[in-house]
Amino acid sequence: MSNFKILHKDGKARVGLLETPHGVIETPNFNPVGTQATVKAMSPKDLNEIGVQMVLANTYHLMLRPGVKVIKSFGGLHKFMGWDRPIMTDSGGFQVFSLGGGMEEGSSKVVSSKNGKVKESPRPKLNKITEEGVTFQSHLDGSTHILTPEKSMELQLHLGADLTVAFDDHEYRDDAKHLLESIERTEGWAKRSLAAFKKLDSKQLMYGVVHGGTNKKLRIRSAKFTDQNFEAIALGGIYGTKKQMYQMIDYTLPQVSENKIRHLLGIGEIEDLIEGIKRGVDMFDCVAPTRRARFGSLYVSNNQTLSIGQSKYKADKKPIDPQCSCYTCQNFSRAYLRHLYLSGEILYHELATYHNIYFVTNLVKKIRKAIISNNLPNLKL
Ligand SMILES: [Zn+2]
């Protein structure tokens, strides 16, 4: 059951509240990704301090390691990872297609780009897709697994997330014929996901996923189907260019009920958050803030980033972003962070990730305030 309430609108942008078993989420909201039941380099204490409202964990990774049985024996993910606020899990669908190929040693020859020599290289095995589900090899040890809508729902129930995602198909190319086949498979799997949830007597809120790539007609069809069957709407699949993604949101959202929560899966760069929220998206998740931090890319005001490894920051006494009030910016200089980064120090990852997650969380809070005061178009980044 969805307990989502819209409190205010400014154009298409919405401010709302989503009630979950682990607390209320203020929307719009950005969720950092905790693939392995941890947001990399952040403790739950850090996330609480920053004001993160929900994290997303990956069913695919957790089913392979440590195994959902282990997590279930702790009473679910919240207790296992020491996080008592809302958690969302995905269906595993995206990862079985993108990662679950296993590795077959010495099975193909590739030309090394470094020296032009031909050498043996591991090649991913193909997944087998049937109407039943997806058979895949673990990317960790090559062991064979099958993920079906029923299995995904059972795993997500045992993980105990507050928000879950219906099992969906990601095996498509962006042409109308294959997209149609893929949507038909996703619709069949969606119905089986719902039936499995009913049978398991799960009370979790489940997102159905709108697919259709960049094809307007198919996106509309998929949006109508998802709205008819689900209480929560996620947009997923192939988005194309940024312009095509924004158009897709514009085609899709008018097809779904106003009072249902809408989540743009896997998106979270600053300008995409703003464009998505303006178009009526309520929720986002993305690895961008954590991944960027690991590679030295730190957010600063005016929709910019800086590369902390650059020599111009060698003796720079300023904080990462003079306008940021996070712990890192209140206490450390760019020069110190650059030194930690170049030295490969663990503390760099903590401080940099803290700043990036704080920056995005705080930005979304600012956007929320701007919507409440009908001032979104004038928001300064
Ligand atoms: Zn900061």
Task: Describe the structure in your own words.
The chain is an alpha/beta fold and 381 residues long. It has two domains: 249 residues, Alpha-Beta Barrel (TIM Barrel), CATH 3.20.20; 91 residues, no CATH class. Helices cover 39% and strands 22% of the residues. A six-stranded parallel beta sheet has the order 4-16-15-14-13-12. It has a three-stranded antiparallel beta sheet with strand order 1-2-3. β14, α9 and β15 form a beta-alpha-beta unit. α6 packs across α7, α7 packs parallel to α8 and α11 packs antiparallel against α14. The longest helix is centred in the C-terminal third of the chain and has 27 residues. It starts with a strand and ends in a 9-residue tail after the last helix. Bound molecules: zinc ion. Zinc ion binds next to α12 and α14. One of its GO terms (cellular component) is cytoplasm.
